[in-house]
Design goal:
The complex is a heterodimer of chains A (283) and B (261). Chain A has 283 residues and is mainly α. Chain A contains eleven helices and two strands. Chain A has one domain: MetI-like (MetI-like fold, Orthogonal Bundle). Chain A has a two-stranded antiparallel sheet. With 261 residues, chain B is an alpha/beta fold. Chain B has a single domain, classed as P-loop containing nucleotide triphosphate hydrolases (Rossmann fold), CATH 3.40.50.300. In chain B, strands 6-7-8-3-9-10 form a six-stranded mixed beta sheet, with helices on both faces. A four-stranded antiparallel beta sheet of chain B has the order 2-1-4-5, with helices on one face. In chain B, helix 3 packs across helix 4, helix 3 runs parallel beside helix 6 and helix 4 crosses helix 6. Classes of the chains: A mainly alpha (283), B alpha/beta (261). At the A-B interface, helix 7 and helix 8 of A face helix 2, helix 3 and helix 6 of B. Bound molecules: adenosine-5'-triphosphate (ATP) and magnesium ion.
Amino acid sequence: MNMNPRTTQKLAFAFFLLATLLIIVPVGLIVVVIIQKGLPAISWEFLTSVPKKGMRAGGIFPAIIGTLYLVSGAILFALPIGLFSAIYLSEYAKDNYMNRIIKLSIVNLAGVPSVVYGLFGLALFVDFFKFGVSILAGSLTLGIMILPIIITASREALEAVPSSFREVSLSLGASKWQTIRHIVLPNSISGIITGTILGIGRAAGETAPILFTVAAFYIPKLPHSIFDQVMALPYHLYVISTQVPNVSEQIRYGTALVLIGMVLLMNLAAIIIRYQFRKKKKW
Amino acid sequence: MIISGGNLDKTIKIKILDLDFWYGTFQALKKINASITEKKITALIGPSGCGKSTLLRVFNRMNDFIEGVRTEGSVEIDGKEILGPSVDLVSLRKNVGMVFQRPNPFPLSVYENIVFGLRIHRDHLSKREYDNMVEKSLKSVLLWDELKDRLKKPALSLSLEQKQRLCIARLIAVKSDVLLMDEPCSTLDPQSTAKIEELMIELKKDYTIIIVTHNMQQASRISDDTGFMLLGELVEFGKTKSIFTAPSDKRTEDYITGRYG
Ligand SMILES: Nc1ncnc2c1ncn2[C@@H]1O[C@H](COP(=O)(O)OP(=O)(O)OP(=O)(O)O)[C@@H](O)[C@H]1O
Ligand SMILES: [Mg+2]
C-alpha cells in the first residue's frame, strides 16, 4: 500500500496525541475520583482531631503530624549529606575507578525497591543502633531512600553552572571552596531545592520504609520524643483500607486526599521556588 | 640563551627560563626562554594549538587545575619564582589577572562584579572604600560615565564590549599589575575591538600586558614586543617592529605573510 506522506503524517500525529492523552487520563481520573469521594470528609474536625471508634470516625491529626515529623527528619538528614556528596562528586572528585563506582551505586540506590529500604532500616537503625521503632529510625530510613534523588538533582544543578564562572573566580585568586560557596551554589540553588522537594514528596508518600521502622497502627496522641512511634498518612491509609473492617469510604478517600494534597502542595512549592530563582538568572 | 625583548634598559617583569610543559605525555611547551618587559604590551602569535594559551596560563598557574600536567624550568615575576609548590597562589593570581576570550562577568550586578575579588580576599573595606574602588576601576576602563547610574544593573545585560571592559575593571580592583589577555577581542566587532585596543594602550602606563591574538594587524598595532610560537616552541621573540618588518626566522616570516597555518 502506498500512502501519501501527508496522510502518514496525520496518522502519526493522531497516534502520538492519543498516546499522550492516555497518560493524562489515569492521572486525571485518580485525582477526580479522590477529590469527589474524599472532599466531603474534609473538615476542620477531620484535620485536627484524633481517630475515634477504632479509626472508623474522628480525624487523622496524629497521622498528619507524624508524616510532617518524618519528612522533616528525613530532609534534615538527607539534604546536608546529599548536597555535600553532590558537591564532592561534581566539583572535587577525579574521574577514577573509585568515583565511578560511587556514581554507579547512587544510580542503583535510586532503583532499590522501597520495601528493601524498610528492611534495611529495621536491621540497621531499629536493631543494630537500638533506636527502636521510632521517629528517628523511620526518618533515617526515609532519608537514605531519598538521598539518590537529592544527590542526582543537586549534581545536575551544580554541573549546569557554566565552567567559565568557576574559571574566572579561580583566576581572581578565589579558592575552590570560595568559588563553590560564592559562585556555584548561588547559581544552582533552584535545582537543588527542586530536587529536595521532589525527595520530600517521595518521602511523604511511601509506606514500606516506615512500616517496620516507625509507623504505629494506632496512637491517638502526639509523640514526645524522637524515640516515640508515630502514625503516618500512607500507613494509616493502608490500615484503614485493609486492616480495619467497615471504615467508611469517605474517611478512606478523605485520608488519601490529604496525602495527595500534601504532596501536590510540596511540588507546587518546588515549582514556585524554582520559578523565582529562574527569573533572576540569565545565562 | 635569553632572548630579551630588545629592551635591555627596561625593567624585566617576567623572566622565563627553559620552560617545559606537559599535558600528560604531550609536551605543549618546549624550552621557552624570554623576558617580558614591564609596562609594555607583549603579543603572542602563532597558529592554533601552538601553546599560546598554555604559556599564558603558566603565568597565573591556571594550568594547575588540569589533571596530569607537569611544568619544568623557571618563571620569575618581579624576581620571584612562581613555579613550585610553595608559591602563594592567591597573591599570585591577584597580581596576575586574566581576561578571557569570551567576556565572562558573573551573573551579579556591575558593582558586585567589581568588588567580588575584594570580598573574596577579605580586604575589609568600608562601604565608602568599596564605592571608591568601583569608581576608580570603572574609570580606568573608561566605563564610569556610561555606567555610574547603573551600578546595580545585572552585568549580563551589558553589551559585549562593556562586559569585556568590566572584566578588566574586575582585575584592576584587586590590584593586578600583570594582565593576561587570551584573544580578548575575538568575540567583538571591529569598532569595539578598536576601543579595547585604545584601552590597552592607555592601561600599559600602569600594567604589564600580555595578549594572545590571531589578528596580525592587532599585534602590530598595539604591541611593543611580539613572540611567535610554533608547535610549543617560541621561535622568535623581539621588538614587534623588527618581527613584522624583518623576521629573522623563515617560519616567522611564513606565518606573518600568511603562508602558514
Ligand atoms: N587540557 C588539555 N589536555 C591536553 N592537551 C591540551 C589541553 N589543553 C591544550 N592542549 C593541547 O596543547 C596544545 C596547545 O594548546 P593551547 O590551547 O595552548 O594552544 P593555543 O596556541 O592557545 O591555540 P588556539 O590559538 O587555538 O587558542 C594543543 O595541541 C592542545 O591540543
Ligand atoms: Mg588559545
